[in-house]
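Pasting as-is:
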Amino acid sequence: MKKSMIALATLATLSAAGTAAAQSSVTIYGRLDASVGSERVNDVSTTKLYSGNLTTSRLGFRGTEDLGGGLKANFQLEAALTVDDGTAGSLKFNRASWVGLSGGFGAVRAGLMDSAYKDIYDMGISNNVFDSAFTPTNLAYAGVGNYASRPSNHIRYDTPNFGGFSGGVSIALDETAGVSNDANAFNLRYRAGNLDVGVAAQKQKNSVVADERDYRVLAASYNFGVARVSGQYQMAEQGNGLEDNEYALGVTVPVGAFEFSAGYAMGKSELSGITTEEGKAFALGATYALSKRTKLYGGYLDGEVENGAGTVTTDRRLFALGVRHDF
């Protein structure tokens, strides 16, 4: 009997140890962002209740399981919300939907997520009026157009940190027989103290060669304490010969519970050396932290795009005041 009791106690101890080694956690989180303001495009003004002017409203789930030996299983599901009408895109997890493993080797994920290019691009406008709807790049970068920020059918690998250096590579498969619409990206990054600098490239293939796109970006940010600055230079090329050269610079100044930000961006598109479009915009913004999870904010964006002849094709103004709450 005594030996049996010892055996049962040993088994219970081993079972408890196994359970502790495989602990898991799931977090439900979200963000609600609403603002009221006005937008004028080419002399046509509209008053609106916006959702997500400071950052996109969202609902998400993320979790991790400790598998032991430094290995973890991870997942994330994140859906965009529109606060103004209460919809959730039929609860489609269009911002993140992935599962993966992480450990001493780095991290590998599969599903829908940010491309390796997006990390560096976003860092370069992080202090350009908070990387929000007010950020001037949204207007000034025309021509070739935006890169694919969250491709589907995505496989991504990120290295561990090596003395401040890290890298990432992502491949998005088109999954269509006889068609090559893959999107491939990589980045290299260095972070040390208040400095963050990186380079990235992304190639978006297309069955129509004229519609293929290549993007390259150099970005940096630095925290001076009294102010944070960020900047980027992006080159974009399209298969039809269209080329963009684009610049952005922003600064954020914290003052107590306030943060004030200003930004500027400009872009120029050329086809065979001839200018086809030029865009430029500036913006101002401010946030006030009511708590760690709730902010009041206001922002103003002003800019225009001209064609090669110098005629204004887009003249846009955006102003809004709002509140954002995280949970």
